[in-house]
Amino acid sequence: MSPAALWRIARRDLNAGFRGLRLLFVCLFLGVATLATIGSLTASISSELTARGRVILGGDVEVAMTQREASAPVLAAMRQGTTGFSATIRLRAMANGPARPGTPGAVLTELKGVDGAYPLTGTLRLANGRYVPLAPDAVIVDRALAERLLLRVGDPLRYGTARFRVAGIIAEEPDRVSEGFTLGPVAIVSLDGLRRTGLVQPGAMYEAKYRLTLSPTASPTAVVDRLKARFPVEALETKTRDRAAPGADRFFQRLGQFLGLIGLAALVIAGIGVGNGVGAYLIAKRGGIATLKVLGATSRDIERLYLMQIGAVSLAAVVCGLAVGAALPAVIVAAVGDLLPVKPAVGLHLLPLLTSATFGLLIAYAFALPPLARARSMPAAALFREGVERRAGIQRRTVLRVAVAAAAIVALAVGTARDPLFAAVVLGSVAGVLLLLAGLGWAIRRQAARVPRPKAPLVRLAVANLHRPGAQTGALVVALGLALTLFVTLAAIQTSLDAEIARAVPARAPDQFVLDVPSDQRARFEALVKADAPEAKLNIVPSLRGTIVAYAGTRVADLKAIPDDAWFLRGERGVTYSAALPQGSVLSAGEWWPAGYAGPPLVSLDREAAKTLGLKVGDTMTVSVLGREIEARIANLREIHWETLGFNYIMVFSPNTLAAAPHSLTATIEMDDRHQGAVTRALLAAFPSASIIATREIIGQVRTILDQMAAAILLSASVAILAGIAVLVGAIAASRAARTYDSTILKTLGATRGQVLGAQAIEYALLAGVLALLALGLGGGAAWFVIVRVFDFGWAPDWGVVLGTLGAGAFLTLGIGLAGSWPVLSARPAAVLRRL
């Protein structure tokens, strides 16, 4: 038959409401919409970070250093060939506001001193007027700080030893995203005003940043290379406008990849629903297929005819999914735009939309081929007997076509992933789970045919339903197994994230962190704390910043790319020195240096960091501290208990290495809650340069981040659950014709609706009971991988909640199965018998 004639028949036969193929439409729509939404949102954020890189960074190039300002030669080299230059200094400091009821009095902030050229790019907007360079006694504050201290324009504010007047409320800070994570709201003063505070002292923890603007033809990368080549010992931290916020970009790329793979897994799961839906549709059409064959239609005609119908519905589902996926990011941005680092512009991103459409069409093709091949290859007489006769196997040609489609799906997923290995592992795991469930379904069907017949009629009927001709046991096992596994996975992920903060952190975390205590004031600091909190436990350590510039003879600057796990190679990290093994660490290799050690520099390294870099005890590494490179031998490796929220330094040096360097002290305090206010007031009065961080504020920020991550995972995985439910509905629909005939015969022989429904309930309950343990193992394993391997958190699920969720999920799927069986029970025996 000609394509035109086939399309004419296909169009006439296809119901306007896609009746019979609605499950195909819903499954593809859910999967494509999810993939397109995640891909479009991630692309929008990444594009915005790239497009606004110059404004976000505050220039074309940024050069930063910690605990020091640039020397005259470095400043001269930075200014060379630039069209603009701006210097800023940023540190944590306590803001002391006017005494007003309901205010904390002192608040930890990020204090930034800026010069008259700031900002070089972008606009610093104020809520109460236009920004002008600040006078030495003027300060502008973030809206959050104004709300906490009830500040108004003109109010006094004290930092260190200097008093300021609030000159404005910040509405938009152009370089906010590139500044990174902060522990408090921002306040901005002039550089002269910052020096009035007395907070910038040798050893104090501050960061100096220099922003440069270049001519349109100049290369930011060339400027960075020139500075690093000229000052290799300075360990300059640099950024360019092309990578203005690498941390934010890397986080959203990873999260987008992970959520995208969840969406792809949901689409693969929905593909099973596609296969079930197409199978049920073709079963309903078998009379027409047989009639067409009797009238002379070839098997190829049948395949092309129904492939046209399936293709039309699939194309409609993909188009609708793409429309939702393109529009939904704008809705998400409008709803939660303030939680994002940048507010992405609304627009179409063709690559993620095209990728999602390709995935959807390949999935539809791969899963629709097997049922279509059965209908294509069966003789007309066999089609009429299909309800009671086992189906023929799938031809080798069809298997080859499905394999090609599956290979294309895997190639596309791995080829477009940021981490191809991770993508391959996820897809391989999904395929493994599906094969395991399919094999279990075959085993259950085979075993059900061999067990002795139960005496109870309903139980005997339920067991027979598992292995009789036309039984959908395999599809039901896959559907129920997927649904229960997803319920377990979500419950284990959610409870582990809750336990990460609710149980582990508060039980072991200190109450306060105190930063920037002068190194020669240790005894006074201890005395002040003990005076107001005699029971307090103190842990005081020296605090410096350093950059790893070489290890085992390899310069970090010579690496083509820094591995994702080697995050400690990116920029400066906290370093300290200690005569004894630090709290929260366990020695795992080597020996600690003896008391009073005075030999060559030694360093203790985190065990995981050493594993990432391939280092061992005895190897060397070079660290730049305050612009001076120190080569030290690795004396030992430590296992660090990061969850304690104590001082967990990647690198701890022997005291003789850093004791003479300018530095400050950092302390943790564990004490009774009733003493915290008095201790805070005493310390701030004695040490104006000190900053005090309440642990509950850190825990609150971490909890917010974890809650947002859990919500994103839950929303994405809920699509997979909907797909799993769709698979269950499809499996029920595929067996509806056979079950209708069974129900009719049973009712003709005197069975009631309740008895027929009871037999089906027993059948589903038997399957759910068999699958519960398997779902617990598979779901627990998937959740462990997400929590431990992807997000690097502790594994601590609440098994009571997990088991409760598993039970609730079993009852839910059982209810869905019985609800799907209700139309079978409603069929009139006379009408059904006339169709036999």
From TrEMBL:
This protein's GO CC annotations? plasma membrane
Q: What is its main location?
A: membrane
Q: Which UniProt keywords apply?
A: Cell membrane, Membrane, Transmembrane, Transmembrane helix
Q: Which InterPro entries match?
A: ABC3_permease_C, MacB_PCD, Membrane_comp_ABC_pdt
Where is each ABC3 transporter permease C-terminal domain found? 261-379, 717-826
How is this protein positioned relative to the membrane? Multi-pass membrane protein
Domain of life where this protein originates: Bacteria
Q: Where in the cell is it found?
A: Cell membrane
Give the stretches traversing the membrane: 21-41, 258-284, 305-336, 348-368, 398-415, 421-444, 475-493, 709-734, 764-787, 799-825
Domain MacB-like periplasmic core, residue spans: 28-229
What PANTHER family does its record include? Answer: INNER MEMBRANE PROTEIN (PTHR30287:SF1), MEMBRANE COMPONENT OF PREDICTED ABC SUPERFAMILY METABOLITE UPTAKE TRANSPORTER (PTHR30287)
Which protein is depicted? Putative ABC transport system permease protein
Per the UniProt entry, what species is this protein from, by scientific name?
Sphingomonas yantingensis
